[in-house]
Structure formats: structure tokens, C-alpha cells
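--- STAGE predict ---
source: upstream dedup step, 1 unique chain passed
mode: sequence only
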Amino acid sequence: MKTNVKQQEILDIIKTELSFWENTNDISSPSHHSSMDNMFNMLESTVYEEDIDGIQEGLTTILYHIRKIK
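--- STAGE serialize ---
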């Protein structure tokens, strides 16, 4: 099944966030969390808040594990 418009929009946000992390000069910066909040706030009117929260939680977990790698 092909992704729908909402799914594609979420995937685009995730790609943007990952690119931001990849090009950051400080992977430990708390600004990464506020960046995620800002990006996903744009979706609040079209996607259930619990779905957005779950995606952000997953990305936060990924960021945590990336930060741990030395």
C-alpha cells in the first residue's frame, strides 16, 4: 500500500529531523527536542496527538541511543 498524504508528511518531517541531527555541531544539544516539537506542532490539526506523541517518543529514543555511542 502506498503512503498517504499524512504519512508522507510525517516521513518528510522525520527525514528533516534526521538530517538536522546529522549536520549538527552538538548532538547533545537540547535544541533537538524543541526542533521536533516545532515540526510536529504543525500536524496537530490533521493527525491525532497520541500518534504524534508516539512518533516523537520513538525519535527521542533513537536520539538517546545515538548520543550514547562514543
